[in-house]
Amino acid sequence: MASLRSVSQHIDEYASLSRQLFGTLETLADDRRAGDHEDPRALVERIVALDRVLQNEVDQIEEHQRWQQRILEVEATIEACDRAAERLVRTLHRAKMTLEDTVDAASQQIADADARAPLDYRDVLAYAKRLAPYTSAPPRFDPANPSHAFEKPFPDEQMMRAGRLGQLEAAAAAAAAEPSAQTATAGGASAAASAALAKSAAAMMQGALASAVGFGMPAGGAGAVSAAGTDAGHAMDDLLDLDLNPDLS
User: Fold this and answer.
1) How confident is residue 211, by pLDDT bands cut at 50, 70 and 90?
2) 80-94, 112-126, 143-157, 187-201 — which is least confidently predicted?
3) Other beta carbons less than 10 A from residue 24's beta carbon
4) Which keywords, in A-to-Z order, does the entry hold (predicted)?
5) pTM of the entire structure?
């Protein structure tokens, strides 16, 4: 393959032969003798032969440029592959670090699981029994029939009231209502005492009038009236002794 130096030398030789040919032609055109000038035909033959050499070298240069372009493309491809390989190595490194962290965490979890108490099969069966009603609809379940009996996946109000929190809430409500109930009981006792006192006073007045006019006297005569008055007096004493302000504590 022709080198750059040989091509440059052939071009210089081609230029020199061309100048010699033009000088010879100029001498012949002036009707002067050629003298020491070379024959134009020989110059033309040398120029033609040199032109063939140059043409061959030009073809070689074109081939060289094609190969040079191919080399540049290959170099660009290699550079892109190098960048892709570098990215792949970085990705693999990050994946390796992630896997190492995952393996370490899994190893710790396995160690913790081994350190814990072994799982009892009864606990598993109880959990499965608890979870089984919610994994699928009951057999022959009709969504259009809301009265179909099935267990809800969440507790309703009745279940919550029957639970421990509902019992605590009911106890708190009963404790809050107890002072009001005691106050209402004391008020009822006071009203009953007042009504009994009024009834006894009325009975005493009726007995006094009956003894005075002899009308409405009960069976047994004056002794019965006196006994009735005595009993009424004892009842009034008992009512007066009633504690109208009981201790509410």
Assistant:
1) very low
2) 187-201
3) 20
4) Activator, Nucleus, Receptor, Transcription, Transcription regulation
5) 0.32
- Alpha carbon of 153 to those of 126, 135, 142: distances in Å? 17, 10, 17
What average pLDDT does range 56-75 have in this prediction?
A: 89
SS3 annotation, the chain: CCCHHHHHHHHHHHHHHHHHHHHHHHHHHCCCCCCCCCCHHHHHHHHHHHHHHHHHHHHHHHHHHHHHHHHHHHHHHHHHHHHHHHHHHHHHHHHHHHHHHHHHHHHHHHHHHHHCCCCCHHHHHHHHHHHHHHHCCCCCCCCCCCCCCCCCCCCCHHHHHHCHHHHHHHHHHHHHHHHHHHHHHHHHHHHHHHHHHHHHHHHHHHHHHHHHHCCCCCCCCHHHHHHHHHHHHHHHHHHHCCCCCCCCC
Angle between helices 40-115 and 4-29 (to 10 degrees): 160
What burial class does residue 17 get, using C-beta atoms within 10 Å of its C-beta: 0-12 exposed, 13-18 middle, 19+ buried?
buried
Contact 19, 43 (CB under 8 A): no
Name the amino acid, one letter, at 71. I
Residue with tokens 């099935």: 150
From the number of C-beta atoms within 10 Å of its C-beta (0-12, 13-18, 19+), residue 54 rates as: middle
Burial of 43 (0-12, 13-18, 19+ CB in 10 A): buried
Least Cα distance to 211 among 198, 200, 224 occurs for 224
pLDDT at 228: 47
Distance CA 182, CA 172 (A): 16
Q: What pLDDT score does 140 carry?
A: 75
Residue 191 one-letter amino acid? A
Can you tell me the distance from the alpha carbon of 203 to that of 193, in angstroms, rounded to the nearest whole number?
A: 15
